[in-house]
Amino acid sequence: MTRVDVLVVGAGIIGLSSAFHVKRLCPSCRVLLVEKHPGPGHGDTGRSAAAFRAFFTSRTNMALAASSIAFYREVQEREGFDLGMRFTGYLFLLTEEQHQALAPVLEELRRRGLGYRVYSPEELEELLGLRTRPGGEEAELMQLPGIDVGVLAENAGIIRPERLVEYYSRRIGEMGVEALYNTRVEKILVEPEQPLGVPGEPLPWQKARVVGAATSRGEIRADVTIVAGGAETPFLLDPVGVDIHAKPKKRQVFVIRADRPELRRLLHAEGFNSLGLAPFILLPKGVYIRPAPEDNAFWVGASDHLGRPFSWEPDPQPEEHFYEYGIYPVLHNYLPAFENARPSSAWAGFYDISIDGQPVVLSEPGLVAAAGTSGSGIMKADAVGRIAASLALGKKRAALYGGEEVDASILGTRSRRVEEERLVI
Ligand SMILES: Cc1cc2nc3c(=O)[nH]c(=O)nc-3n(C[C@H](O)[C@H](O)[C@H](O)COP(=O)(O)OP(=O)(O)OC[C@H]3O[C@@H](n4cnc5c(N)ncnc54)[C@H](O)[C@@H]3O)c2cc1C
């Protein structure tokens, strides 16, 4: 049996960041990270589209993302650790009505000193070759709206998740966090504080707490267990009666190579950033286009809601017809550069969707759980890890990077005080 101060379950970006911040705040703590895969970042962290933006309708999400982005920027620019972070910007293509609805978010961006730019339909047509008024039978059938305005969030772009994983895993190794890979947590252990040795403990009147986990390598006892199992978190917590209030939903990414002049021109579109790169583009109907300049490609995806089940499987596969009928018709009607473009590869993973599109970080005696990152966990991981670490160390407040302090219970299920997020992509 192993005994540690803090056990972290899951070496995705949330578990890594949590372990890092626990050790940073408590250098003398013995921290152990366990992961069922052979290394870190093999779960949904490695399947992400890895875009980031400090542009959300909820002020909490905005703060989590803005502080995490600032931390990653510091790592890349000051520490010199290349995270593949590129500030391409995030371009929302909107109807006038949607633009009006975003007014409070734009105001919040202004208040935080985070820049954005507005593009007219004529500018979008010229810079991207965008069809702002797609016409024809197909466009009518799909009820594709006309685009009246483009809003470019500037504190946004793309990052390489495997580099972020490497950064945190290297740093925690240097700091003395132990890591056990190929180790599956079978069960979270709950015991009464004063056991009697009778059947059915903990009994309703007994004070109970999480005391660690039973794993494929034996029992690990811990003062606090942080569960960061991503979309699989409910499988660990449901059996001990803790509800994370988040569910997995499949999401897919398709790679389109920029192997012809129109697509290359689009990939290197001018007028959005100083890099001469296309921004991350969000089209109507939830279709997104992420520039992937290192692969001379675009990654495209779409989020479907009604009809797509909440379910999890160990090896999710992309669906060719989802691209063909779900994404391609939207893509090529707005951007003729994609005419006849077919994916060269694809992958699938899971969003871990919470009730309001914001992470859940809850605590129970001996337990902290951090999950429900709702498709934006990479861009918020540093802040989520800080909050989880603060709770694990019994702190009431968590300091985000840049100095902003938040109540550490703000993302809990019982104590939740967040606005609903309306920009889950
Ligand atoms: C297609 C797609 C696109 C996305 N795009 C973006 C994006 O553009 N920007 C963004 O910020 N986010 C994006 N996300 C979301 C982002 O990838 C997730 O929010 C983030 O990776 C979640 O990290 P995590 O650590 O919670 O989960 P994971 O990375 O899944 O880590 C959880 C870990 O826990 C381990 N684990 C689970 N159960 C056990 C057990 N019983 N024993 C031991 N280990 C266990 C798993 O093996 C896994 O390694 C996207 C996700 C997908 C699927």
TrEMBL record:
Gene3D superfamilies, alphabetized: D-Amino Acid Oxidase, subunit A, domain 2, FAD/NAD(P)-binding domain
Any one annotated GO CC term: cytoplasm
All residue ranges annotated as the FAD dependent oxidoreductase domain in the record: 5-391
Signal peptide: none
UniProt GO molecular function: oxidoreductase activity
A Pfam family assignment: DAO
UniProt xrefs under SUPFAM superfamilies: FAD/NAD(P)-binding domain
Record keyword Iron-sulfur present: no
Assigned keywords, A-Z: Oxidoreductase
TM stretches of this protein: none
Official protein name in the record: FAD dependent oxidoreductase domain-containing protein
Organism the protein comes from: Pyrodictium occultum
